[in-house]
Amino acid sequence: MPEHPGAQLPASGRAPFGARLARAMDAHGPLCVGIDPHPGLLDAWGLPRTAEGLRRFSLTVLEAAAGRAAAVKPQVALYESYGSAGFAVLEELLGGARAAGLLTVADAKRGDIGSTMEAYAAAWLEEGSPLAADAVTLSPYLGFESLRPALDLAARTGRGTFVLALTSNPEGRSVQHVGGGGSVARTVCSAAAAENARVLGGAGTAADGPGAGTSAGDRSGLGPCGLVVGATVGDALTELGIDLAGVRGPLLAPGYGAQGARAEDLPAVFGAAAGQVLATSSRAILRRGPAVPALREAVERSAGELAAALG
Ligand SMILES: O=C(O)c1cc(=O)[nH]c(=O)n1[C@@H]1O[C@H](COP(=O)(O)O)[C@@H](O)[C@H]1O
């Protein structure tokens, strides 16, 4: 039986990203382990601030996360700062995660005019690209439709996107809340809802509630267009009149852990969309390294408390 009535199997033959992510979250809990090799963390782990230090850090986190988390999210900026050697490590990490059965989210936050966006899409989402991940983070501030090449390629290859909607940092409000009832954030959420409705079939907008075929908070039939909504946004969804369940996409939630949000805060933030949430945590877990058993314990504890809070 198809994963979702009305959903087309991606041309790649790979199961759709939403179905693969739901399976991984059901198996391991709704945790994404962020791989952010900050220079200070390399120091704390006794590793050199070199590409080899970056490599040992990345592969250690992978070893700790494999079989214990749904996904990993390398922060591309922290690889990019080492130039081509950093990108080589990132390629190795993405390949290693694939081999270990971990879904990958490349945190690249790309966004540009459509013609340039085609190249970003090819780099992060195209079949056979050395940097291809299961999903990539995107910035919609050149207009949601400028992301079209990535949205289309993701749907075609069974991959996903996470588009910034309500970010976890306090400065985000100054852009994302603008417009009140017709806020920038709500516009982005409505566009994501329309994109998922296009791919999955059925109607759906962020204002209208769940569309056909997916009940509120149900993660089994999610579309490929996810959103980034910080775990730290408090009551912003109510304040801005956004119904995330109606988006019918996965929700990447940074802010859990080092930025202060706790697992038990998440149900109130996400309401009926709690089942769609993939919480991501980097420093709170990484500070427990470099010993693999301590990292594993941190991953298991986070995955367990998130599963208990979010279902
Ligand atoms: O897209 C992201 O992952 C992201 C969006 C956002 O709104 N806030 C946010 O913190 N992030 C990223 O999530 C990670 C959070 O790291 P920790 O605060 O150490 O858990 C960093 O890599 C951020 O760049």
UniProtKB/TrEMBL annotation:
<comment type="similarity">
    <text>Belongs to the OMP decarboxylase family. Type 2 subfamily.</text>
</comment>
<dbReference type="GO" id="GO:0044205">
    <property type="term" value="P:'de novo' UMP biosynthetic process"/>
</dbReference>
<keyword id="KW-0456">Lyase</keyword>
<dbReference type="GO" id="GO:0004590">
    <property type="term" value="F:orotidine-5'-phosphate decarboxylase activity"/>
</dbReference>
<keyword id="KW-0210">Decarboxylase</keyword>
<dbReference type="GO" id="GO:0006207">
    <property type="term" value="P:'de novo' pyrimidine nucleobase biosynthetic process"/>
</dbReference>
<protein>
    <recommendedName>
        <fullName>Orotidine 5'-phosphate decarboxylase</fullName>
        <ecNumber>4.1.1.23</ecNumber>
    </recommendedName>
</protein>
<comment type="pathway">
    <text>Pyrimidine metabolism; UMP biosynthesis via de novo pathway; UMP from orotate: step 2/2.</text>
</comment>
<feature type="domain" description="Orotidine 5'-phosphate decarboxylase">
    <location>
        <begin position="30"/>
        <end position="298"/>
    </location>
</feature>
<keyword id="KW-0665">Pyrimidine biosynthesis</keyword>
<dbReference type="InterPro" id="IPR018089">
    <property type="entry name" value="OMPdecase_AS"/>
</dbReference>
<dbReference type="InterPro" id="IPR011060">
    <property type="entry name" value="RibuloseP-bd_barrel"/>
</dbReference>
<dbReference type="InterPro" id="IPR001754">
    <property type="entry name" value="OMPdeCOase_dom"/>
</dbReference>
<feature type="active site" description="Proton donor">
    <location>
        <position position="109"/>
    </location>
</feature>
<dbReference type="InterPro" id="IPR011995">
    <property type="entry name" value="OMPdecase_type-2"/>
</dbReference>
<dbReference type="Pfam" id="PF00215">
    <property type="entry name" value="OMPdecase"/>
</dbReference>
<dbReference type="InterPro" id="IPR013785">
    <property type="entry name" value="Aldolase_TIM"/>
</dbReference>
